[in-house]
Amino acid sequence: MATVRKEKEDTTVKSELPSTFKAYRNQQYRWACGPSNLFRKIAEEIRRTAKISLWKKIYLAYSFFVVQRIIAHIVTFTFYCVVIPASVLVPEVKISKWGVVYIPTTMTLLHSVGTPSSFHLLLFWVFFENVMSMHRTKAVLTGLLGVGEVNEWVVPEKLGNAVKANKGEESSKNSGSTISKRILLPELGMAVYLFIRACCDFAYGKNYYFFCIYPQAMTFFMVAIGYVGIFVSS
Prior knowledge:
Elements: E1 2-6, E2 11-15, H1 21-48, H2 54-86, H3 97-114, H4 122-145, H5 162-171, H6 179-182, H7 185-204, H8 210-224
Antiparallel strand pairs: 1-2
Helix pairs in contact: 1-2, 1-4, 2-4, 4-8, 7-8
């Protein structure tokens, strides 16, 4: 169990956290897939209902579903992990600084206001969220199309079960290597893709995108080899 303390009111709140990064990854997948799947199922019902006004229908669909649960994940991944690195090979394409620098910086600073104690992790958090956006984009498309694991509801192990999980892993070490289980191939593939694009921009580019592509590639690689998460001592 994790304990969250709010100093001003001296209140202690207990909360369960995913015990491993893979558990967190599965949790984020479910949280992204669920709303998009729900939107696919009830969009027509929202449109046909006569109990609420047209303006409220548009607000519900646009604000709660389309922007926050669908567009945000897709735009983040495609723009920062696909479009910008791919533009390295097309010198004619120029992306404005407000899209590459100003908007991400502003959003990052606004997020940091609420968690000043984690300010030292701010830069890594930005690149880590871009990594997770790839996983969330896949989940959103799965929910919208109703394919794959859309109807599966697997609750990940929480922090309170981490010690038991560690004991179970120790007993199963002889059955196989744990290194192969930690490697995430999609993230590893994106790390290689971004690293190549960063090298191309460093050698031939003029927009200095490699300053953000290299750290992004490193973050994808760290996630791919399982170097993100926590260790709970037994």
